[in-house]
Automatic annotation (TrEMBL):
This is SGNH/GDSL hydrolase family protein. GO terms for molecular function: hydrolase activity, acting on ester bonds. The keyword Hydrolase applies. Its EC number is 3.1.-.-. It comes from Saccharophagus degradans. Keywords: Hydrolase, Signal. InterPro entries: GDSL, GDSL_Est/Lipase, SGNH_hydro_sf. It comes from the Bacteria. The keyword Hydrolase applies. It is an enzyme of class 3 (hydrolase). PANTHER family: GDSL LIPASE/ACYLHYDROLASE FAMILY PROTEIN (AFU_ORTHOLOGUE AFUA_4G14700), GDSL LIPASE_ACYLHYDROLASE FAMILY PROTEIN (AFU_ORTHOLOGUE AFUA_4G14700). Residues 1-21 form the signal peptide.
Length: 326
């Protein structure tokens, strides 16, 4: 009977301790939304462009929603909505504004490894100039660059131009240093995904080349992020986009995607296109449904990293903490 009583007492004590710890953990998570991010600043390409390309080249055809390269909102729209922020286009390339209108500088076909106003370096430069080179500590920098460089490398006649991929990684690294030197404390930088499953790549039969280029870029990209963290002491939030996409495609049905092979718009004439159940809108673009799935994964993983960072993150390579000080 005494043993049984001790077991009950021990169980209650453990339960009490668990509840206390669990309560503290919930408090940590509650603190972050109260503080939150002050702005969402996006540097990227086609999947996050919310109107900059159209502001320069003209409105997109009616099948594209609100000058997005999808049938509805895109990743940046969904992320901004979840975070309570804005993904409005900067319109910095339109030539009609003296300063950026929004904080989304993304532009379709933006190069990471080349200079120019339309490319990643130009996007970052325009943003920093608008802030007098002082990034607010609560700004969330979403750096998703290099996709155009990888695609161009893939579609360039053999042999694979590794220098193009190296230039892309070097270009991103240079912009990260500029942002961190200007005070950026929250940077989210996902990898690229093996897009060999895209209908356009399948039809060309170049899946192996896609994999080779993607693996090379991601390996160099990850090492670069390690180097930036080591040299600056600033943590960078990461996301293995390649791994996520492979899981999404393999388990598409569980996400409500009934067709992960065909191009939706090619079945519009026959009435077989349901954007809410297709993975692909065109042979190179994904549906808004897919954009939302990716955005949800990005946001959830990002906030998990932020929460983890608040509890302390000792970085083995740099031998000190990399989390933002604010």
């Amino acid at each position: 009977m005494k043993i049984y009583s001790r077991l009950i007492a021990t169980g209650l004590l453990l339960l009490s301790g668990f509840s206390f710890a669990h309560s503290n953990h919930k408090t940590d998570l509650i603190d972050q939304p109260q503080q939150g991010f002050g702005e969402l600043v996006i540097f990227g390409g086609v999947f996050t462009d919310t109107g900059n390309f159209a502001s320069l080249y003209g409105d997109l055809p009616g099948i594209f929603w609100n000058n997005r390269f999808a049938n509805g909102p895109v990743i940046s729209d969904y992320m901004a909505e979840t975070l309570g922020l804005s993904a409005s286009p900067s319109l910095h390339v339109a030539g009609e504004v003296s300063e950026p209108m929004g904080t989304n500088y993304s532009m379709r076909n933006a190069w990471a490894g080349q200079s120019g106003e339309l490319n990643i370096s130009g996007q970052v430069q325009t943003y920093l100039a608008s802030k007098d080179y002082s990034v607010p500590a609560d700004s969330l920098i979403f750096m998703w660059a290099g996709s155009h460089d990888v695609i161009e490398a893939i579609t360039t006649p053999a042999p694979l131009p590794y220098q193009m991929l190296d230039d892309a990684v070097f270009g991103i690294e240079a912009q990260l240093y500029l942002l961190i030197d200007s005070g950026a404390q929250h940077i989210f930088a996902p990898t690229f995904a093996d897009v060999g499953f895209l209908p356009a790549m399948q039809r060309r039969g170049i899946e192996a080349r896609v994999t080779e280029a993607t693996d090379y870029f991601n390996r160099k990209f990850s090492r670069m992020l390690n180097r930036v963290e080591r040299n600056t002491g600033q943590r960078i939030y990461r996301f293995d986009f390649d791994r996520y996409v492979k899981g999404l495609v393999a388990n598409a049905g569980f996400y409500g995607i009934k067709n992960s092979v065909d191009v939706c718009v090619e079945q519009l004439a026959t009435g077989g296109c349901d954007f809410n159940s297709f993975l692909f809108m065109t042979d190179v673009l994904i549906t808004s449904k897919t954009h939302k799935l990716i955005a949800d994964a990005f946001t959830q993983d990002l906030l998990h990293q932020v929460s983890y960072c608040k509890r302390g993150n000792y970085h083995r390579r740099t031998k000190h903490h990399l989390c933002p000080s604010n």
